[in-house]
Design goal:
The protein contains nine helices and 25 strands. It is α/β, with parallel strands linked by helices. Among the domains are: about 140 residues, FAD/NAD(P)-binding domain (3-Layer(bba) Sandwich); about 140 residues, 3-Layer(bba) Sandwich (FAD/NAD(P)-binding domain), CATH 3.50.50.
Length: about 425
């Protein structure tokens, strides 16, 4: 066992500062191990609220917290900024860009996932997805720039082309983006422009399956569709997008003009999973044992969006923030059991429900066999997401912005950053 030379403690390397990696590090904080957390970013992002950055409700700093700040009380945890280039389970080393390497006794791989374009990566340029703060600010730029460009065109020529925001995918991210864009157009921006009418912007969802939010019950799925349509969103189910180009998408054999196209379907796990000499599924996820370790190495754990697992009761574990948090805590607990010489405990997932917000007073929530929609679901969604946010400062800032947006119809983060004219 490669122990820390200074204090004889086992070395734990955690790859990824998302929910799984961060909560594994928290679980090991100030315990009898030496921990190194590696991430390409210096911050933890609260991904469930990224769409609110993309739609100008929140600023990046309100949902992202520096990892060093989160872990500053953990005296046995070191945070390293870097990109992992190789995972060598035989030599027990993690190789970093620039030639650095980290030795480990235990390895926790929690590098998350990115959007998948199903073999058409060239579509990303014209239909960005939403997984990072950078994605969110780029989407915000495109949405706001669309309105500004239309106003400019109307001023210069007396006319402007119709605005069409197309969202590919009717899962939670697609539904939340569509509802938030509709809210921007119908409420927040309705009085901001002189020559264009933002309320006439067309917002469309294109979903290949028979219904939106297919993971929810049919009743809640129908409720979500109805709530979207009440906001003026066009919901197109059984409508598979077969091509994406700048300014248009192809649905079946029909080309449809778009002003902004957003990608909200398809997920692929980090390619780091394939470096573990373990089998993976089509999405790149690694099957794991009941204790979250991989089959051929009990000291290598894979958690979060990278893991393919069922819990102790035989239920598939979804790729949700709450699940990743629980997996991180469970992994840390099992590592500490090893250190104490105790037996490991199989992971058991506590399902806290699934929720998707659609707009002001609109949402759906599924908790066990119970389903909620409308205002009640929206309040449940708000309570759960505030509770999940790390730190009292973040909670207060987010609550402040939500109340401001609710009662004033204003969005305080309507800034266009980056390249204003072009992509």
């Amino acid at each position: 066992m490669k122990t820390d030379n200074l204090n004889g403690r086992p070395k734990v390397v955690i790859v990824g500062g998302g929910f799984g990696g961060l909560y594994a590090a928290k679980g090991l904080a100030n315990k009898g191990v030496s921990v190194t957390l590696v991430d390409r970013k210096n911050h933890h992002t609260f991904q469930p609220l990224l769409y609110q950055v993309a739609t100008s409700v929140l600023s990046p700093g309100e949902i992202a917290t520096p990892l060093r700040h989160v872990l500053f009380k953990a005296k046995n945890v070191e945070v390293i900024l870097g990109e992992v280039t190789s995972l060598d389970t035989k030599t027990r080393k993690v190789l970093l860009d620039g030639g650095g390497e980290l030795e480990f006794d235990y390895l926790v791989v929690a590098a998350g996932a990115r959007h998948s374009y199903f073999g058409h990566d060239e579509w990303e340029r014209d239909a960005p997805g939403l997984k990072t703060v950078e994605d969110a600010t780029e989407i915000r730029r495109r949405i706001l720039q669309a309105f500004e460009a239309a106003e400019r065109e109307a001023h210069l020529t007396g006319a402007y082309p119709p605005l069409h925001f197309a969202i590919i995918g009717g899962g939670p991210t697609g539904v939340e983006l569509a509802g938030a864009i509709a809210d921007i157009a119908r409420r927040a921006m309705s009085q901001d422009f002189r020559l264009i009418d933002p309320t006439r912007a067309r917002i469309s969802i294109f979903e290949g399956s028979p219904r939106v939010l297919g993971m929810y019950t049919e009743r809640l799925s129908d409720s979500a569709k109805r709530q979207l349509e009440e906001l003026g969103v066009e919901v197109n189910t059984a409508s598979r997008v077969t091509a994406v180009e700048q300014g248009r998408i192809k649905v079946g054999e029909e080309w449809i003009p778009t002003t902004v196209t957003l990608w909200a379907t398809g997920v692929a796990a980090s390619p780091l999973g394939r470096m573990l000499s373990a089998e993976t599924d089509r999405a790149g996820r690694v099957p794991v044992q009941p204790d979250l370790s991989i089959r051929d190495d009990k000291n290598v754990f894979v958690i979060g969006d990278m893991a393919l697992l069922t819990d102790a009761s035989g239920k598939p574990v979804p790729g949700l923030a709450a699940a990743a948090q629980q997996e991180g805590r469970a992994t840390a607990a099992n590592i500490l059991r090893d250190v104490r010489g105790a037996a490991r405990v199989p992971f058991s997932y506590w399902d806290k429900g699934s929720m998707a917000t659609i707009g002001r007073n609109r949402a759906v929530a599924q908790v066990g066999r119970l389903g909620f929609s409308g205002y009640v679901a929206r309040m449940m969604w708000a309570f759960v997401h505030v509770a999940l946010l790390g730190g009292g400062r973040s909670r207060l800032m987010v609550l402040r912005e939500w109340l401001w947006a609710r009662y004033t119809r204003e969005r305080s983060a309507r800034l266009i950053t980056g390249n204003t004219y072009g992509r």
